[in-house]
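Budget justification note: compute hours in this period were largely spent on complex prediction jobs such as the one shown. Inputs:
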Amino acid sequence: MDEFGFIDSIKQEAYMQPSLIRGIGDDGAVFSSEAGKSFVTCIDTFVEGVHFSKETMQPFHVGYRALAANISDLAAMGAEPAFYLVSIVIPQSWEMKELSAIYAGMKELAKKYQMDLIGGDTVSGESLILSITVIGRADKGKARYRSDASVGDVVFVTGTLGDSQAGLHILTNQGEYRNSNYFIDRHRMPEPRIPFALGLKGLSRIALNDISDGVASETNEIAEASNVTIALNDEEIPISSDFVQFPKQLQHQWKYFGGEDFELLGTVREQDWEEVKRIAEKTNTRVSKIGRVTGGYKGHVLLKIDNKEERLEKKGYNHLSR
Amino acid sequence: MDEFGFIDSIKQEAYMQPSLIRGIGDDGAVFSSEAGKSFVTCIDTFVEGVHFSKETMQPFHVGYRALAANISDLAAMGAEPAFYLVSIVIPQSWEMKELSAIYAGMKELAKKYQMDLIGGDTVSGESLILSITVIGRADKGKARYRSDASVGDVVFVTGTLGDSQAGLHILTNQGEYRNSNYFIDRHRMPEPRIPFALGLKGLSRIALNDISDGVASETNEIAEASNVTIALNDEEIPISSDFVQFPKQLQHQWKYFGGEDFELLGTVREQDWEEVKRIAEKTNTRVSKIGRVTGGYKGHVLLKIDNKEERLEKKGYNHLSR
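Corresponding output:
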């Protein structure tokens, strides 16, 4: 199969977004403006050997997870997914049927959110690399920023933290584990929190971020962007019931610095917290209060742990460090 | 410099697009809908060793040319450039100052078209790879497609063909050449035909494509998408004055199959041809009639050369062939 044949094979049969005017097949895709809406866009890249490996993921998961990470960014912006474009660098070592499985993984998730694949590029190279651009829409004035936290806010997080890294640990360390499929699924097929994020639309103010690098990194991002202190309480960080089977030191590492859980981290006014809980229940989303926004140090995160309060540093992934 | 420092260093000081609500710095960028406009988007990827090499390009050119190729796609859609997002995969072998030069090359071109850099990702990997997504806008109903050619149309092309490959030849083959800087510039810093493409706005119908893989490939794309025959005349294919210094066989190869000239190829009604010439003059663009759209074989391109008419096959680049 050559480039043209491959592109034909991944083309969607039919498009789902009514605002799409022209999909794949020309020099660019065309979609219309929509009154009262803004568009949200971001790009994310996944490199074999850096972000994923064939030893812990099947090709289907590689695609699923890469698109999930991008959709999670849209969730963190309060945006509804609409379109995606995929550039793929293909090495000799990947078979056509594996490449098709990558696209099948993306398509499965895309279908869930009515997203259309509207562009792409396929080139050859030394390692498999996926670059995905997503485009979503938000009601005008309702895109959600990290810079909107205020002193007194409740800090909350969806789901449970550290599960993705626990899954990776299970996949790379032989042993007996309880509930291993749960953790492996959380690693391979994370669920972006779109319904919950869209449910928050009615709130007048909310700071929102998604947990891709670890909650330590993302709380720091909100604290810095909003120029506030965030005070977390270790006892309130939500973990799944079988998470306690892992050594304490690993639990701590994965919860705060593990990343890739693709949960949402937010801050809202005290009086909006009940509404957030109601939206969480309605969208079948676990949500936990994990701390407070306070004054004091600008751009710091403090963690209360073992009856001490210490500074929680960023220390998340930083792929460019070398 | 780490990822965060590098991203800070490439961030724009100020944004130029009035519709931009939020640029780099959150999970995604936000821009507003615009009444009466459609958005056009595409993604393109450039791999070191496949699409460029340090031996023939300085880092500045790598960035300039990669963005030019993307902007050329917007031109071919009749769209005005607005935003771009850049994902970069960085190997150990590239210095920070070279990476900065890549971004400087993109910025130089972006500034010319008032484009804002609104997103990106930086990751490490084995070879340098740039993935660029561009977003532009077109008046509603005025995006230009390959599928809009009709029997009787004049086929035209901007500029001169084959220059980019001639420049690459000069860079990779020692020798005495006339006007070598001209050809090298055409290879390293191609000029997308935005002013001319936007000037065509008033035309009710036009088929448009940009020459990235070679005019043989792109005429075939229009012929297939529009289900027509395109008949070209070799004598009318525009070449620059010093192009004749190269062996005849190379001239032929570069003109038809060389690609990367980023000129525009179009077809318009006979009665609109004068208007196209007027717009070309106004935007300081050379434009040449090179053939006709005819009936007959659907999706074929015929070339009249040396008093014979033969079929011109696609045979352009096809990066996935292996």
